[in-house]
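Subject: sequence -> structure tokens, single chain

Hey, anyone have a minute? Need the predicted structure for the following. Not urgent.
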Amino acid sequence: MIQRLAASALAVGILVVTTGCAPEPEVTFNQPTGPATARSSVAADKLDRLRRESGIADCPPANREPVTPSELPDITLRCLGAGPPVDLGGIGGKPTVINAWASWCGPCRKELPFLAQAAAEFEGRVDFLGVNVADPDIEAALAMVRETGATFPHVVDLRSKTRVPLAYAGGLPSTVFIDAQGRMVGEERTWFRSYADVTAAIRRHLGVAP
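Reply:
Had a minute. Here:
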């Protein structure tokens, strides 16, 4: 009996070791890492040039006095372009569309032009914020912004800290809708296949028409 219990305990121990989650590695803009392919580091001057060429908008200053406490977490993320870091918990005061994407995500690339069109159409009434997720290839991310015309502000979440609060645990892309009070009032877990899909979702979740 003792031998069987010992063997069982050993088997459980082996199972935990072999199936446990490994900690995520730290990733920085200049650290080559990521899935499958090697990444090249980006010098600061080259990064600045790529940001300018992408046409990406500066991140807005933090909203120090939101209308009510936001339902978004107090996670501060670095701006993909220029501008200050963005505290998601400070978003409030205007309806906001937050889209999670990555350069390695095919559907993300397909839908970003529609989001870019909507950002221009709803300018002044609805804010747009992109969250570049688990994408250490900063050059590819900035190139995708340029190619798709999605030049509204974006932040970088290399370690997927927003995976649960922004509802993309099942994959990318994912879009959440925040009302003027900082409440998460809707989400779309599939990609937008047309501009009409984007405007319909904004009308449905935020009550704002083109």
